[in-house]
Amino acid sequence: MRVVACVVLAMGCSGSVGNHDDNPDATNGGDGQHGDAPDFSSTGGPYFTSPMFWNRDVSSAAKASYSNATISALRAAGGWGNSDTFQIDFTITVLGADNSTPMRSFTKTADFYSPDCDFMQMPVPQTGSVEGETGYACTHDGDCHLLVFQKDSGMLYEMWRANITSSTFYGGCLAAWNTHTAYTDSLRGDQCTSADAAGYPISPLLFTADEVKAGSIDHAIRFILPNDRVKRGFVRPATHGTSTTGGTNAPAYGVHLRLRADYPIESLPSEGAKVVARALQKYGMYHADGGQIALTAASDRYTTAKWSGLLGPQDLSALNVEDFEVIDHGGMIPLTLDCVR
After folding, report:
1. Mean local confidence (pLDDT), 49-56
2. Residue 36 lies in a domain
3. Exposed, middle or buried by CB within 10 Å (0-12, 13-18, 19+), for 67?
4. What predicted TM-score, i.e. pTM, was given to this entire model?
5. Which residues constitute the domain of residue 276?
């Protein structure tokens, strides 16, 4: 059973067949009048009250001894996905909930596997959407992430492959995070996945239009790569990976890249792009999943600021893999797919 689940994961949860680029120019604008906007204010950083790995300033950290070899291998494999274009995905929405939001049970699908995933009720706001869709129905066979932050309880619910049609809620892998907990290096469990193949939460690594408009992103950012450019195994902070096929010097799941300090940020085409680039220099970006669109922003459906006129999907396309360095997070951890929680 575990082997079957991992085959599904390698093809789906990693995003290798997910429709990350179904609508790469979409900004998911909405009227924001539904009371579902997430309030992620905290003392430690987005959502979590204790500082986590995404809060670490790595602007002065030494690059890894193998950085040049890893970057060269990534270049030789084709660079970023999407024809080697460093593009931004705006299709993931984070919904807000409170204690009055209805809790719903879901029916497991083949995309739910134990013990990695959590089988419990989760809050589902009356109005909302899954990744890449205008509502809760997963109609385009994408990753269909459903992300809900319930601030009253401090719980962050993240589900991969959610599909809610009429009164039926079908659910893939649900990862429930207690944002009041200071997680150890093994997060929810070593060799365990989450709603992302790397095993860590998605929402805190998304940057928002409100952050960019304010001029500062104070955390690291989520990024993804095609699975043929990533080697099997993972490095911290990841707790999991997939059946990837990259070569010996390829990056591993969880690799932490930082934009070079000497990159000419003022040459970028928009103020929004410059804000993102400065965050990439200070906090970097963590590899989280497989797919084609490199960088992930939150949709502006429930934010005050909107992406239109602030940041476009191609505004960072000048960034090449050679403009980044690898930050060392310790040795490679072999992928056994034997989740322990």
Report:
1. 96
2. yes
3. middle
4. 0.89
5. 2-327
